[in-house]
């Protein structure tokens, strides 16, 4: 009897569980359908903002975004619908694009605290660049940025410029030697220019930011280059989607950077879909190991009178000052310091390496601009092969070339912000939680400002700027405001030093007839074929 009763009770509770599962599944389906199909079509305050069709019910325009060249769909939409565009992401997630200076001023400058980087973006950035300026916001960000600002002061940059030349001269010497070794040296040699730009910029940032001699130019199996290369190969729309899906699960971002998962990465790699994650774990571990090494090599804290203002000295100094003021304060731990090293390693070389590769590509396809640049820089180098910061800054055509290249092919082609509260932008009611897509590449090539040839490379346009040009918002490659690029001035002066040395010594041409560039982007926009270019000695 007892057992018959308990069987009935068991059957009843199973039935209840069964109902609960059905109710939960029904609710999730309803919520998904409501979010993806009903709300954006019938209730969203953004439903009347112009933009492309809703796309697929679950994926919106997601595939148009990840399968096309970065920012090209947004550019087409802006041409068709104007400077405010709405597009749909996954499961009804609404994205807004604004191109006007007024809107960008509000989002990036005036109300920057209302529009922080979205959490998912910060999680991804934290994975590659650690917990630092890129991932924090508000007061913590203000404090860290204030401590670091002297690293990019003009006197500091003037002192740093001299340090660029050792790696640059190594690069020139390697290219020269390899061209000489060819059967017909006068015809030059094809080099994967992105690889070389990555190496020279890594050596420069290691030296100028941390006083660390990396010398990956002479060492093809250098751990840092191998790790960053491996990460670069993983940068595709599909892998990014996998990463975003993975990171959306709480705890996954932290796990990916953990030593435990590194030890078990081969197990992860056994599942074919997860193989890119196992490579990512490996790269992250290698980069963290070197960052720790860099920190260990920098244990001496500069005293108060020290004139050393490289990034590492400033960080050590800030930590010492904090501990002196309050010995029990939570000054940066060694782990937090490693994260700062990661931030500058990643940001300090990727942008300049991509920027330089794109500039060489554009010059290889515009021989007149290349010739004019050589004519400007050659006498400068003949007088002094290590021109200083002010000399580089004063070269007019060099400035035009760098500005124009960064405008047409910006190394960081887009970024995102999220509305933390409901607000109006350009008269559009933007509900809390709306994603703001800042398509830098589209802003930089907006015909309304730059005219009909906006998408073409014409350095001379910087000598006669259009009426609608706005110095802060028309070339937006470093964005602006409290989260604007920390290394802007350094990046530009570094690009100029590398470019001027290369153009004085070499001529650049496409590697083969009909060559086209293939920009591939996840975080930064790089040439997906490593940019092969034919390099030959400048004829006397
Ligand atoms: C051509 C080269 C470069 C370009 C185009 C570039 C562009 C950018 C952009 C667009 C951002 C904002 C990203 C966002 O908000 O989503 C940014 C942020 C940042 N960049 Fe650069 N960057 C370059 C070089 C550098 C260099 C050389 C350094 C370091 C020495 C650097 C350090 C940083 C840091 C630390 C941030 C975060 C700033 C903050 O939020 O306070 N960048 N960069």
TrEMBL record:
One Pfam family cited in the UniProt record for this chain:
p450
For this UniProt record, the keywords arranged alphabetically read as follows: Heme, Iron, Membrane, Metal-binding, Monooxygenase, Oxidoreductase, Transmembrane, Transmembrane helix
Q: List the transmembrane segments.
A: 20-38
Q: Which GO terms describe its cellular component?
A: membrane
Pathways per UniProt? Secondary metabolite biosynthesis; terpenoid biosynthesis
Cofactors (names): heme
Compartment(s) of residence: Membrane
Binding residues for heme, per the UniProt record? Answer: 485
Q: Which GO terms describe its molecular function?
A: heme binding; iron ion binding; monooxygenase activity; oxidoreductase activity, acting on paired donors, with incorporation or reduction of molecular oxygen
Can you tell me which family this protein belongs to?
Belongs to the cytochrome P450 family.
Report the protein name in the record: Cytochrome P450
